[in-house]
Amino acid sequence: MSLQIENKTVYVIYHNGQPYQARGRKLFYATKGAANGVITVDAEREARRRYDKKRRESNYDIPNWWDLSFEEKETLIGEVKTEFEVIEYVLKRKK
User: Fold this and answer.
1) Do residues 85 and 52 lie in contact, with contact meaning Cβ atoms separated by under 8 Å?
2) Which sign does the torsion angle of CA 85, 42, 58, 64 carry?
3) Of 20, 67, 78, 92, whose CB count within 10 A is highest?
């Protein structure tokens, strides 16, 4: 099976300067919106994972993720989102 994409634009997610290769994620996306959706979901998941790790390291002295305010969660998620970027590639047909 070969990949047949000609004269199309695709979007690749980069995380900390490297192509994003999370389990179950595509290498590229047909729309920028789809790529941004992945970033939104995965940034929240990663922010929660990091916060939970920090909570465990503090012997549970800080509140649970679900007890944080919306603004606190958004701040943590925003910090993770800055590690992502979407790069547009235009694939051209060989002549």
Assistant:
1) no
2) positive
3) 20
